[in-house]
Design goal:
Strands 2-3-1-4 form a four-stranded antiparallel sheet. The protein has a single domain (about 1-90), classed as Alpha-Beta Plaits (2-Layer Sandwich), CATH 3.30.70. It has helices at about 15-30, 60-65, 70-80, and strands at about 1-10, 35-40, 50-55, 85-90. About 35% of the residues lie in helices and about 30% in strands. By secondary structure, it is α+β, with helices and mostly antiparallel strands.
Length: about 90
Amino acid sequence: MIKRFVKMTFKAEHIDRFKDIFKASRDLIAAMEGCQHVELLQDINNPCVFFTLSIWDDPQYLEAYRQSQLFEGVWAKTKVLFDAKPEAWSLKVQ
């Protein structure tokens, strides 16, 4: 099992748009094969910083999602809203 964290910093004027994109896509992502959980977290000190946490049975399922049309569509809408380069970590559960 792996946990995937993605840190994203948005321009303040785009926060509501990003939340709408996430709300519309969360259940679709969670329905992907091998996905156990998807959630959105917001930094308590900087409201422009968000993290997504997703839990996957195996890295192959995460990679299948990353190669999917769903990911392409969500990412295309999201990346234009960034104020900084996103960062991502895939962590193995011990």
